[in-house]
Design a protein that fits this description.
Layout: E1 5-8, E2 13-15, H1 18-28, E3 33-35
Antiparallel strand pairs: 1-2, 1-3
Length: about 40
């Protein structure tokens, strides 16, 4: 099961929904990075 998240390293926030990450990007003008969390 591979899930994709989006992370703002500047705010140290992570988002499960791309739409929410996009809203954060527009409001804060921070870059968002797509990440794959590792679950052990």
């Amino acid at each position: 099961m591979s899930e994709v998240n989006w992370k703002c390293f500047r705010c140290n926030l992570s988002f499960k929904d791309e739409n929410i990450a996009d809203i954060h990007k527009k409001i804060s003008n921070h870059s968002i990075t797509k990440i794959k969390p590792i679950v052990a």
